[in-house]
Amino acid sequence: MKGSEVRVENADKKFGDFHALKNVSLTIGKGEFFSLLGPSGCGKTTLLRIIAGFEDPSSGSVFLDTTDVLPLAPNERHVNTVFQNYALFPHLTVFENIAFPLRLKKLLKADIQEKVTHYLQLVHLVGHENKKPNQLSGGQKQRVAIARALINEPSVLLLDEPLSALDAKLRHQLLVDLDLIHDKIGITFIYVTHDQSEALSVSDRIAVMNEGRVLQIGTPFEIYEAPADTFVAKFIGETNVMDGVITAHVDNRYTIDTDSLGPIMVTSDRYFEVGHRVRHAIRPEKIDITKEKPLGLPEDFNIFHGKVSETVYSGFQSQFYVETDESPQFKVYQQHESYLERGPAIRWTDEVYLNWDADDGYIVELI
Question: Any long-range contacts for 210-218 (C-beta under 8 Å, 24+ apart)?
Answer without folding.
Answer: 210/38, 210/39, 210/42, 210/235, 211/22, 211/42, 211/43, 212/13, 212/19, 212/20, 212/21, 212/22, 212/24, 212/42, 212/43, 213/22, 213/23, 213/24, 213/43, 214/24, 214/25, 214/26, 217/26
